[in-house]
Amino acid sequence: MSEDFKRETTISVELRVSKTLQSLNLFLESMGKSISLYDLPMRPTNMDNVDCEFPREIQDEMSIQIPPEDYEAELKLNLEQHKAFSMIIDVIQKGKSGIFFIDGPGGTGKTFLYRALLAHLRSKKLIAIATATSGVAAAIMPGGRTAHSRFKIPIDANESSECTMSKQSGAAELLRRSKLFIWDEAPMAKRWAIENVDKLLKDVMGNDQDFGGKVVVFGGDFRQVLPVVPKATIHQTISASLVRSYLWTRMKKFRLTINMRAKNDTEFSKFLLRVGNGEEPTDTEGNIRIPEEMIVKYDNEEDSIKRLIRAIFPSLNTRAHSADYMTALSRGTSMSTTKVLIKPDTNNIRGKIWTKNVVYKQVYIADLRKIISVEKLWRRSEDVDLRLTMDRS
Questions:
Q1: 119 and 221 part of one domain
Q2: Which has more pLDDT, 340 or 359?
Q3: Structural domain includes residue 233
C-alpha cells in the first residue's frame, strides 16, 4: 500500500509510513476492527494534523508527475495552438470564467495542446483536471480519467438527472480548488452528461455562472463518433449531441487545421480534411474513391489480411514487442503508411469495390507462428452493402 504514496516524491519516508498506517486503520475500522489489534506500529501522534486540510483526492492530483517532454510542449506549439493556449491561460490568470472548444480533425494536435496546458499549470502547483469521454483518450493525458468517473455522471444521464457527488466530499473540494478542466472527445458525450456537470459545478461552487465560473476546455472532432443513441435516427442523434446544448453557443471556439501527424504528406492531409468536411468528390450514391496508394487488394481473407498487416507493420517480426513501434504505426501519417484492404462486394452486380473500416483481425509472427493479439474487427460483407466509411481518428 505504501507504493501508492511513492508518487508523492516531496514527502518524507516517515510521512509515507504514517499515511500507510492511517489508510490501513481506516480500512480496518470499516470492518469494526483497529490497527491496535495487530502486530503493527501505531501511527505517530505528531502526524495527526499533517495534510489534514487536503483530502486524498487533492493529494493524488498534486502528486501527478509532469513528463519531461510536456515541459517543452509550450515552446513547440504552432500558431493555431498557441493562440488557444494564450487565451485560455490569460483567462485563468485573470481569475475569470470561460468555456472553450478546441475543434480539429485527428492529427491536428489537440492532445498536444491539452498536455501543454496541463504542464503549464501543474508546474506552478495549480490543479488542472484532465478528463475524456472515453478511457482510451483519457489515458494519453497525465492524470486523465473518464468524465463519468471524475464527475460521478449517471450512466443514463438526461435532462433531469444529476451527478452523484456530495458537496462535502473530497472530490467536491478538488473541483473547487481546480483552475482548469479539460474534457476531450466531448462530441462523443451526450449533451445531458455535459449539462449535468454544469449543474454540479454550479452547486459545488455556489455560483450560477456556466460551470460555476470555472474555466473549462472541451475538445474533439464532430467528423468522428457522435453520441451513441440506440436505434436512433440521425436527427435524434444530433439532438443528443453537444451542438444542441444551451452551452454550445456560449463556448469560444478554436479551430486547428494544421495536420501535425501527416505534415510530411500534405496531399494526404488535404485528402482527410476533404473527406471529413464532405468536400471530396462522390458518385451518385455518396461514395468516394480511395487513392490507389492506400489500397491493398483482396485475394482471400487469410492471405489478404496478412498482406495488410505486412504493409502497415513491415518490421513486425522483429519489433512486435515494441510499444512505441506498434503505437507509431497504428495511425497512418501518409498515404504510404495508411492501408485499406479492399474486399469485393459479391452482392453488387455492377462489380464495384468498397470497404469498411479495416483495422486488425489478428497479428501473426510468422517465425513463431504465434498470435500476438486477437482483435476481431474484420467485418464480413456477405449480407451488407460495403460503402466506404473512413476512420478519421
A1: yes
A2: 340
A3: yes
Would you state the cell numbers that stand for residue 393, as one nine-digit string? 481518428
Residue 51: C-alpha distances to residues 66, 105, 176 (Å): 22, 43, 17
Task: Give DSSP secondary structure letters for 199-210.
Answer: HHHHHHHT--SG
Q: Which range marks the domain in which residue 152 is found?
A: 62-255
State whether 137 and 239 are in the same domain. Answer: yes
Determine the Cα–Cα distance for residues 17 and 188; give it in Å rounded to an integer. 43
Closest CA to 311 of 288, 289, 293: 293
| Mean pLDDT value of segment 236-265 | 87
Q: Note the pTM of the prediction, 2 decimals.
A: 0.67
Q: Is 148 found in the same domain as 248?
A: yes
Tens of pLDDT, residue by residue over 188-225, are 999 999 999 999 999 999 999 999 999 999 999 887 77
Is residue 117 located within the same domain as residue 223? yes
Judge whether 260 lies within some domain: no
Same-domain status, 68 and 136: yes
Sign, Cα dihedral of 273, 277, 279, 280: positive
Distance CA 107, CA 333 (A): 9
CA 67 remoteness from chain centre: 17
Report how many domains make up the chain.
3
